[in-house]
Design brief:
The structure holds two protein chains of two kinds. Chain A has 24 helices and 15 strands. Chain A is an alpha/beta fold. Chain A has a five-stranded parallel beta sheet, with helices on both faces. The longest helix of chain A has 20 residues. Chain A is elongated and about 130 Å long. In chain A, about 45% of the residues are buried. By secondary structure, chain B is an alpha/beta fold. The longest helix of chain B has 14 residues. The relative contact order of chain B is 0.12. The model of chain B has no long low-confidence stretch (mean pLDDT about 90). The chains are: A alpha/beta, B alpha/beta. At the A-B interface, helix 5 and helix 8 of A face helix 1, helix 3, helix 4, helix 5 and strand 4 of B.
């Protein structure tokens, strides 16, 4: 039988000499005090060397490899690495433990002792050639090799606890999902992908993939093999070109910042990562530091935030509202309700999700975790879900601009009316839950119907405004229509006055034409006013039947042009939107072909820009 | 009395891991032979260590306990290792990412321990016992059963194992801790301790 002895100068020397192949497998003092020493990594690397191009039929290991602490029982750790690492190609080989204790005694000291009760594990107390030969003859006669059934039994029997840092500051999902994702990107020839993968595999894989707990979870989940053709995906997220994104994750420097950097670079987006989430800071100091970083930059299109950013967040009794991530979400949305925030977390707890939404988050994407039974196909879906969320939030990033604009209009409001009607109008416009807030809230919902409602409110604002006594004076003089507006300097400007039934002095004329989106049926009637011609001064027009009269549209045009000096092109767009307001948003008159024209959010943006010009400039 | 220094940058974790949380924290804070450098005070302390060439700040302490990741970030691990070896101090490094606790006595007593095992229900008693000068670092891992490791090693030795180093010194050192039990007394004592675990 080709046997291997793994030991550490802690066996009977005559017995050691029986083995043709024997290796000392324990760190020196210099190694164990080094700053990055990890026993799992050490054992993994040593075993990798030992098993390279070697095949053994039986492996002998003393219970312990530490000559200064007999109950460290590190031999069990070595055995479990062999059993749980497919790459070593020895996971089914019988293992013989050397030592005088019995299995029950060892198990009392360490949970790793559970391996001693699993199949194909044998014990040798007497360190003699005879005892070894007897045992090996027995193993040969019994064909002692782990079957697939035995291996499953072994997996169900052993107990391996996660390291403390998986109970506290981050979930194993961080590394797990990072490794899974980086392996799936199809940009094989991309010169930037190879260094990223190397970095992840060096920084993350080396410490994680070599970890016994990680190996245990991987084997336990019996994961699908990776199929190159089926499971490759692109790192690029379509539709987010030019969008600015901030990523805040306490574990970001352990690979996720690099990974996100790659994804957003491939997507032509601009990613900023929140640096230095120091774990040595008190929670309040950490929150302040992150807030300062957020404030140091302009508002982003999207924020991607982990929920648990501080040790305190891992306390079992913590109120989800007090999670550092939720506090940051609230900080951002208190400043700008339209900010788009995606929670990217390993937590799949519904109460954390609900609280994040309460605090103002707009979306939630879960990092893949080995604790869940994700296949490669599902891993793809996890990334697609993340990409969809990012894209969706980028599309909604206009809300932050609308919110800012709404607040800007309120804060810089210049129109100070004297009339009672004017004062009521201003209150209805800028007070909390007033027209401006309503327009924003309707945009936030963002469906076709709410856009119609938003446009109706926009014209309610405009129509009410232009007819205020502080703004215009349209009516009848000697039973004939006439109208004038008040300029900002309180000067009166006549817009038109009727000379008789046939003649009018006017400063502008309406021109009539059909809009391209009008239905054929609507063209059986008169064309609507579609554009204007503006004169330098009041101009006499005879045989006049062109529509300049005491109508709301005429008052709107007059106020926009002669009080606020709005461009003709913009006024003509107001005329178009008013047509849509009357024939699509308020009533379906059948004159608008909805395949060609609907109310769009850009129409509301236009009206908000107009309001800013009217009220805050 | 022996003096102990405990350097931890993540104060929240201390209270989170200690079984009786704030109550244990208060008890630690009240120990006269224990100096704790924590949280934001940690930053200044580490900066000073980084600039001090001979680490005289550590001179008064017999046992030095550090959160390894925190001092590794500042590149202080080698410097502290050299200092501890030269001045024959005892050293404990704890960290969340440590997957296997490791103990060594050669040159100087050293324990590498997972944060959760470090902040266990044994910590306060260990610090009291250590300060009083009547226990080894192993007590933190195994409590009163720490002597088991010596009994098992002595049994191996009696059964023919030759450990590295001077065999006579090895044996004498062990006998200074556990006496000179016969093999049957030894087996009986080992079995007794295992039964109590």
């Amino acid at each position: 039988m080709r046997s291997l002895l793994l030991y550490n100068n802690n066996l009977n020397q005559e017995f050691v000499k029986i083995f043709d192949v024997r290796h000392v497998i324990y760190p020196s003092k210099a190694e164990m005090v080094s700053e990055d020493f990890n026993m799992d990594l050490f054992i993994h690397n040593r075993l990798k060397e030992i098993f390279l191009n070697n095949k053994f039929e039986c492996i002998y290991i003393p219970y312990t490899l530490n000559t200064e602490n007999h109950i460290e029982y590190s031999g069990l750790l070595v055995a479990l690495h062999i059993r749980l690492t497919h790459a070593f190609m020895h996971e089914l080989v019988p293992i013989v433990f050397l030592g005088y204790e019995n299995a029950e005694q060892v198990f009392k000291v360490t949970d790793l002792g559970s391996v001693l009760f699993s199949p194909c594990v044998h014990f040798l107390k007497e360190q003699t050639i005879e005892a070894k030969s007897y045992l090996e003859n027995w193993m040969v006669s019994k064909k002692s090799v782990l079957s697939s059934e035995d291996y499953n039994r072994f997996l169900s029997m052993i107990k391996i606890n996660p390291p403390a840092n998986y109970n506290t500051h981050h979930s194993i999902a961080n590394e797990w999902s990072l490794i899974r994702l980086s392996a799936m990107f199809k940009e094989e020839k991309d010169p930037e992908l190879a260094p990223l993968r190397n970095k992840i595999f060096n920084d993350v894989s080396q410490s994680i993939l070599t970890q016994l707990y990680f190996k245990f979870l991987s084997q336990q989940r019996a994961r699908q093999e990776f199929k190159k053709d089926q499971h490759k995906i692109s790192a690029a997220i379509n539709g987010i070109k030019g969008k600015s994104v901030m990523y805040i994750d306490d574990e970001g420097i352990k690979g996720w910042y690099s990974m996100m950097g790659y994804i957003f670079k491939k997507s032509d987006g601009n990613l900023v990562c929140c640096p230095d989430i120091n774990k040595d800071l008190a929670k309040e100091s950490l929150v302040k530091k992150i807030e300062e970083f957020i404030d140091s930059l302009k508002i982003m299109d999207v924020y991607i935030i982990d929920l648990r950013l501080h040790d305190d967040d891992f306390k079992e009794e913590i109120n989800p509202e007090q999670l550092t991530g939720n506090r940051i979400i609230k900080y951002i949305t208190d400043k700008n309700d339209g900010a788009q925030i995606l929670v990217f977390s390993a937590s799949n707890k519904i109460w954390n999700f609900k609280k994040a939404i309460d605090c103002g988050a707009s979306g939630y994407s879960i990092k893949e975790s080995p604790e869940n039974f994700f296949t490669r196909e599902e891993s793809k879906e996890v990334f697609f879900d993340f990409a969809d969320e990012v894209k969706k939030l980028c599309e909604r990033s206009f809300l932050k601009d609308v919110f800012s604009q709404k607040e800007r209009i309120k804060n810089n409001f210049l129109f100070v009316p004297k009339s009672t009607e004017g004062k009521t109008f201003v209150a209805g416009l800028i007070e909390k839950k007033g027209w401006l807030d309503n327009i924003y809230e309707l945009l936030k919902i963002g469906s076709g119907e709410t856009l119609n409602q938003a446009l109706l409110i926009c014209f309610q604002v405009l129509e009410n405004y232009v007819q205020l006594p502080d703004i215009s004076d349209f009516g009848y003089a000697n039973s004939l229509p006439a109208g004038s507006i008040w300029t900002k300097a309180s000067g009166r400007v006549d817009i038109f006055n009727s000379v008789d039934d046939q003649s009018i002095n006017t400063r502008f004329d309406l021109k009539f034409d059909f809009y391209p989106f009008q239905t054929e049926k609507s063209k059986e009637r008169n064309a609507p006013p579609e554009s204007i011609a503006v004169y330098d001064k009041l101009t006499l027009k005879s045989a006049y039947r062109k529509g300049v009269d005491v109508t709301t549209l005429v008052i709107i045009i007059a106020v926009l042009k002669f009080r606020h000096n709005i461009d003709t092109e913009e006024i003509e767009n107001v005329m178009l939107l008013r047509y849509l307001r009357s024939n699509l948003a308020a009533h379906l008159t059948g004159t608008v072909d909805q395949e060609k024209r609907k109310i769009a959010k850009e129409d509301i943006f236009f009206m908000m820009d107009l309001f800013e010009k009217l009220f805050a400039q | 009395m022996k003096k102990i220094l405990l350097v931890e940058d993540r104060q929240e974790r201390q209270s989170q891991f200690l079984p009786n949380h704030e109550q244990d924290m208060k008890e630690l804070e009240s120990m006269s032979d224990l100096k704790m450098i924590r949280g934001e005070a940690f930053t200044n302390f580490i900066e000073e260590l980084a600039t001090e060439s001979d680490l005289t700040k550590l001179l008064n302490y017999d046992l030095l306990i550090f959160h390894r990741s925190a001092i590794a970030k500042k590149g202080l691990v080698s410097k502290i290792n050299e200092y501890v070896q030269k001045n024959k101090k005892s050293l404990i490094y704890f960290s969340g990412g440590i997957t296997q606790n490791v103990y060594s006595e050669s040159n100087y007593p050293f324990l590498l321990i997972n944060s959760k095992d470090f902040y266990s229900n044994r910590l306060i008693t260990f610090l009291q016992k250590y300060s009083a000068g009547n226990t080894k670092l192993l007590w933190l891992l195994y409590g009163d059963n720490w002597q088991l490791t010596y009994l098992l090693k002595y049994r191996e030795l009696l059964n023919g194992t030759v450990y590295p180093g001077n065999p006579i010194e090895n044996r004498e050192e062990l006998e200074s801790i556990i006496g000179k039990p016969t093999i049957s007394d030894l087996n009986m004592k080992i079995d007794e301790i295992f039964k109590l675990l």
